Amino acid sequence: xxxxxxxxxxxxxxxxxxxxxxxxxxxxxxxxxxxxxxxxxxxxxxxxxxxxxxxxxxxxxxxxxxxxxxxxxxxxxxxxxxxxxxxxxxxxxxxxxxxxxxxxxxxxxxxxxxxxxxxxxxxxxxxxxxxxxxxxxxxxxxxxxxxxxxxxxxxxxxx
Length: 159
What we know:
Layout: E1 2-10, H1 15-27, E2 32-37, E3 40-43, E4 54-63, H2 67-81, E5 95-101, E6 106-107, E7 112-113, H3 122-131, H4 142-145, E8 150-154
Antiparallel strand pairs: 1-4, 1-5, 2-4, 3-4, 3-8, 6-7
């Protein structure tokens, strides 16, 4: 099985329940085993800022899916949970991003691994470093991440 890391975020509706629904959707697949789930972090929106704050988590999984199949599964799960894409960086019921997949590097129009924006986003890196401290080497100044308004709100979700 391959090891992968996902970032899951939400800022519409019952945010904790949305995260729980996403986790339940992941484990419903016989191709995915959840290894670790980070605490829940609340963050202000990035990109398009005129929207509600997000709840974010990082998830370490083991999977038999290929990287592209994992992305396809995550996109299908987002749709199943009710995600509607209105515009880039807009509000979303659920967002599931593939951050890392073993030591694989992919740069296609459909999929980029490592995720191209992850190192710049505290709402991705802080939860990721929580569950995988060795990933702190991915950022030059992890202390600067703390200044980006990421607030731990819950030590765990109850999926």
